[in-house]
Structure formats: C-alpha cells, structure tokens
Amino acid sequence: MASDRIDSEEALIDEFLAPLAAGFPGAFGLADDCAVIAPGAGEELVVTTDAVVAGVHFFADEDPGAIAWKALAVNVSDLIAKGAAPLAYVMTLALPEAPERGWFTAFSNGLRRAQEAFGCTLAGGDTDRTPNELSVSITAFGTIPAGAIVRRSCARPGDHVYVSGTIGDATLGLKQRRDASLGLR
C-alpha cells in the first residue's frame, strides 16, 4: 500500500509551501536559501519571532489549520502592536515524522487563510525532523513609516489601550480542554 506521507522536503515545498510564496518576488519561489525583503522608501523594517510547540502552546491533536493560524497570528499581533503593517514571514517547521498529506493540506490551508487575513506572504524558511514534538517557528516582517515605531517605553498615563477579543478566552478554553467536567462553553 502506498504511503500517504510526504517523505521529502522538496515535495513538501513544491506542493504545499511554494504556492504560499507566490506573488512575493523576493521569495524566489522558495528555490533559494535566502529571500530579499525590501521596505519601501521612507519605511523601516520591523521584525519579530515566536514559536509554537506541541504540548506547550497547543495540543498535538489540534486541527492543523488552527495550529498554522496561531503560529502566524502570534507574530502578526506583535507587528500590529508596534504599528507595523505585516509584509512577509519565514517559517521553520520541526516535524516529528514525515507528515501525512491530509494533515499538511490542512496546515497549509490554515496558513493561506491567515496570510490572506493578515496581508502577508511566506518568503522562506526551513523544514526538518525532530525527535521531539512538532514546533512551528515564525519570524515575521512588517513595515512602518520611518521613526513611527510604537514602543512599550513610550506609553504614558492617559494613553488609550485597545483589546481585540475577550480577555481570558484562551485560558478558559485551555481549562475546558484539560477538564471537560467543567462544562464550559
């Protein structure tokens, strides 16, 4: 019986990741070891990085599309908090085994939806095997008008603070997932 696993990095890139980089000229179709990310005239590049790891930031059996969305969203959130517009990202995937085609289809579809929602594109990265849990590490790049960065140290009494979503939802969801007897909805 033929395996439904993706056994080579080349197949993973060609079938799933290169389409996510389409339209970003500096990604070179993910056929090079580096990407070129150039901010526009009068802009600065803002950079952030975060990883999400199975067993720490998500459950290993979670929907792959949701894992991908979260991995990109935590990075884009940092860019937006600094006043930057998302531009591109690079991603490193450490996979515990060759991924099943269905799993990676859902993962790449989740990334595509996140890219479309956040207005950024995959520019490069790396895939590798790990003896540990799945890890997705993203470094995201955004642009901002020169000198316009919003820094923590610049906050002053009287400034407005905006929150998107409901504070505590993630913690509540985690508690429910760990203990279904709580009956939370």
TrEMBL record:
Under CDD domains, the record lists: ThiL
Report a single Gene Ontology molecular function.
Answer: thiamine-phosphate kinase activity
Which InterPro entries does this entry report, sorted A to Z? PurM-like_N, PurM-like_N_sf, ThiL-like
PurM-like N-terminal domain sequence ranges = 32-144
Stored Gene3D superfamilies = PurM-like, N-terminal domain
Q: Which residues form a coiled coil?
A: none
Entries under Pfam families matching the protein: AIRS
Which terms does the UniProt entry file under GO BP?
thiamine biosynthetic process
The protein's name: PurM-like N-terminal domain-containing protein
Phylogenetic placement of the source organism: unclassified sequences, metagenomes, ecological metagenomes
